[in-house]
Design brief:
This protein has helices at residues 15-27, 38-46, 68-80, 85-95, 108-114, 129-132, 139-154, 232-242, 274-277, 290-298, 313-322, 335-347, 349-364, 367-379; strands at 3-7, 31-36, 50-53, 100-104, 121-125, 171-174, 191-193, 217-222, 247-252, 266-269, 281-286, 303-305, 326-328. The protein is α/β, with parallel strands linked by helices. It folds into two domains: 3-196 and 365-379, Rossmann fold (3-Layer(aba) Sandwich); 217-363, Rossmann fold. The radius of gyration is 21 Å and the shape is globular.
Length: 384
């Protein structure tokens, strides 16, 4: 039995791949513990997984009330380039020893500390590296580099010219397909693209309100379920766009973010397992988070993208549009623009054909099995 500790944070789309890999490792007889923030504890423990909070930084809540201009700087300081991680990691490992450390690739403080440990270390990237690592000369890239380089200098590590240097040379698992990440071209052998990874979950069904013989095509509308983004305007504009269209609309959202009066062709659910509904879906309207994008593409469903202006969403929207499987729009697009995009997806076969090509690539990827193979190889000290 090998003891794996996943160092993580409450970023929404990064959690499910880590949990899915952890479930595979446990099924193989290994022991897994998550090390992260108190805000994650209940959800991770509810999945039957062991959890420890970071002793110093763990009380930071990414979803606490802050002004828009304070949100991202707070995440940089307390998650992505957090100097307290330098002390948090060894203290947590002293309480719960591990044989392998698996670090989220965005957490530069944890990555810096990993350079100082004798424990084998692997890195987990949950989406396209090109989409989540900003250029060093951008505001976001320079801010994250400056913060990370400050504490790296204090512990004798070299200055980084780009954020990727934080995990250079370490076994890195990327839970997407190479087609969605241009940095896959020429990536070193230490980087392993294993395809999307989801949690195993439980068997469940959803109660469709429509008659089995309803021939109207089904459109899935799903925006971020995290509290970091406000989906209200995107939901309002999308439902208005589709209200008079000959389609059925399934909206995945909380009741608090939806209009009081839903169009007659729309039903709302807080959650529906992707595997239950996507085989019947003709188009997805989404913020283009990696989880929703790859779940839709896995079933050959083309995408209308309304990304939020950060993280990997604008990049993924543009990328899948370039691959022919999506229409990428501004996140605050009008109902008329959204209506036109969805009509294109439904009426032009080329979008579904392009999505089918990506579905094939996803189905060929090893997923959680491949990720667990990499981690067990790291545990055996056999290199990358």
């Amino acid at each position: 039995m090998t003891r794996f500790t996943f160092v993580t944070w409450d970023g929404g789309g990064n959690v499910a791949p880590a949990v899915g890999i952890a479930e595979e490792l446990i099924a193989r007889g290994n022991e897994v513990r998550f090390l992260g923030y108190f805000a994650q504890q209940a959800a991770i423990e509810a999945r039957g997984l062991a959890f420890s909070a970071l002793p110093r930084s763990g009380r930071f809540d990414i979803y606490a009330e802050r002004s828009p201009e304070q949100k991202l700087p707070a995440v940089i300081r307390n998650v992505w380039a957090c100097p307290e991680h330098l002390d948090d990691i060894p203290e947590a490992l002293a309480a719960h020893p591990a044989d392998v450390l698996v670090v989220d690739f965005l957490m530069q403080g944890a990555l810096a500390q990993a350079r100082r440990t004798d424990i084998p270390v692997a890195v987990l990237a949950h989406s396209s590296v090109a989409g989540l690592i900003p250029p060093p000369d951008s505001w976001m890239g320079s801010a994250r580099l400056a913060a990370a380089n400050e504490f790296r200098a204090a512990i004798g590590l070299p200055r980084m010219g780009r954020l990727n240097e934080g995990w250079d040379g370490l076994a890195t698992i990327v839970t997407t397909i190479a087609e969605l990440d241009p940095t896959a071209d020429g990536a070193p052998k230490t980087v392993h693209y294993v395809g999307p990874v989801t949690e195993r979950g439980t068997r469940s069904t959803w109660d469709s309100p429509w008659a089995p013989n309803d021939e109207r095509r089904l459109v899935l509308v799903s925006f971020s379920t995290t509290r970091f983004w406000d989906a209200t305007s995107r939901i309002r504009n999308t439902l208005a766009a589709l209200a008079d269209e000959p389609v059925r609309v399934l909206l995945i959202a909380s009741a608090s973010s939806t209009p009081p009066d839903l169009p007659d062709n729309t039903t709302i659910r807080a959650f529906v397992p992707h595997a239950q509904v996507l085989p019947s879906v003709s188009a997805t309207v989404t913020h283009c988070g990696h989880g929703t994008v790859t779940a839709s593409l896995a079933y050959g469903v083309p995408i209308a993208g309304l990304p939020y202006p950060a993280a990997d969403q604008p990049f993924l929207a543009a990328r899948i549009q370039a691959l022919g499987a999506a229409v990428a729009m501004d996140g605050e697009s009008s109902p008329a623009i959204i209506k036109g995009a969805v009509r294109d997806l439904l009426d032009r076969p080329s979008y579904r054909e392009a999505a089918a090509v990506l579905a094939h690539a996803i189905h060929l990827s090893p997923g959680a099995t491949g990720a667990a193979d990499v981690l067990e190889k790291v545990a055996r000290h056999q290199g990358n």
